Recover the amino acids of this structure.
C-alpha cells in the first residue's frame, strides 16, 4: 500500500473580523483560527491596513499571532488606508503566489488568490482562494475568467488543484454546475443542513465550498460550529481533510 500525505484545509470568510454584534475583533478570529487546526487556511474579507486604526490591522495581527505559519495576501481593493482581500496562511512552504482580479461589474471588486504550496518534498498543491460576487450575472462573468486559461486552466501548473472559498451561490447554479464538471467537491455531504455556513449563528445558506481533483482524495468535511465561531463572523468555517499519494507519476 503506497504512503499518503494527509493535510487539512479550511476556508473562512471573516467578514472583516466583524462579529454578529457588530464589534470588530481580530483576536476573536485568531482564536477561531487556532480551533480549526488547519495546515492550510484560506481567509476572505481580511483588511491589511497597518497604518490605520488597530481594528483594521488584521492581516499583520493574524500573522504575528501565528508566527510559525507562512502567509500570502491577495489585494482586491484599497481600504482604510491599506488593502482588503483574501489571505492564505499555511504550515507548508509557499513557493509561488499570484493574485487575480475577477471584477466583472460595477459591484464590489473581487479576487482570487493563487498559491503553489509544497506539502511534501517536491509535492505541490495549487490552492485557489476564491471570493465571488453576489449577483447572478456578475458570478457568471467571473466564472468565465476563473475557469479560463489565466487562472484554473493555466497550462504549466504542477500538482492538483483545490478551489475553495466563498462562492456566494446558495442554489445549484451555473457556478456549481460548471465546477462540478471539472472537479470533485464537498457537495456530496448527505445531510445538506450540515453544509450550511451562512449566517453563522443560524446558518440557512450553503455559500462556502471546496472543489478538488485527483490524485487528491477527500477524507471528510465539516462545518466548524464552536460557540466562538458562531459569533466571530457572519460565516462559519468549512474544513476539508485530504490525503495525497506521496509518490505521483509526473
Amino acid at each position: 500500500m503506497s504512503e499518503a500525505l494527509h493535510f487539512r484545509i479550511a476556508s473562512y470568510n471573516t467578514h472583516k473580523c466583524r462579529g454578529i454584534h457588530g464589534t470588530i475583533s481580530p483576536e476573536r478570529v485568531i482564536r477561531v483560527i487556532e480551533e480549526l487546526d488547519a495546515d492550510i487556511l484560506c481567509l476572505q474579507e481580511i483588511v491589511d491596513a497597518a497604518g490605520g486604526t488597530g481594528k483594521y490591522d488584521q492581516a499583520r495581527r493574524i500573522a504575528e499571532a501565528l508566527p510559525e505559519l507562512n502567509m500570502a495576501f491577495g489585494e482586491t481593493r484599497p481600504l482604510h488606508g491599506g488593502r482588503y482581500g483574501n489571505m492564505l496562511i499555511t504550515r507548508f512552504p509557499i513557493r509561488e503566489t499570484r493574485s487575480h482580479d475577477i471584477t466583472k461589474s460595477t459591484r464590489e471588486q473581487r479576487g482570487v488568490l493563487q498559491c503553489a504550496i509544497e506539502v511534501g518534498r517536491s509535492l505541490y498543491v495549487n490552492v485557489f482562494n476564491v471570493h465571488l460576487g453576489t449577483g447572478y450575472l456578475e458570478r457568471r462573468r467571473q466564472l468565465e475568467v476563473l475557469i479560463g486559461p489565466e487562472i484554473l486552466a493555466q497550462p504549466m501548473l504542477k500538482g492538483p488543484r483545490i478551489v475553495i472559498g466563498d462562492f456566494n451561490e446558495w442554489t445549484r447554479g451555473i457556478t456549481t454546475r460548471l465546477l462540478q464538471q471539472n472537479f470533485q467537491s464537498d457537495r456530496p455531504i448527505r445531510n445538506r443542513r450540515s453544509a450550511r455556513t451562512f449566517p453563522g449563528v443560524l446558518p440557512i445558506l450553503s455559500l462556502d465550498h471546496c472543489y478538488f481533483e485527483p490524485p487528491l482524495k477527500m477524507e471528510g468535511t465539516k462545518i466548524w460550529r464552536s460557540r466562538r465561531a458562531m459569533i466571530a463572523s457572519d460565516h462559519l468555517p468549512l474544513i476539508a481533510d485530504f490525503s495525497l499519494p506521496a509518490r505521483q507519476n509526473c
Observations:
- The CA atoms of residues 159 and 250 lie 9 Å apart.
- The chain has a mean pLDDT of 90.
- The first strand starts at residue 4 and ends at 13.
- Residues 4-245 form a domain with the Deoxyribonuclease I; Chain A fold (CATH 3.60.10.10).
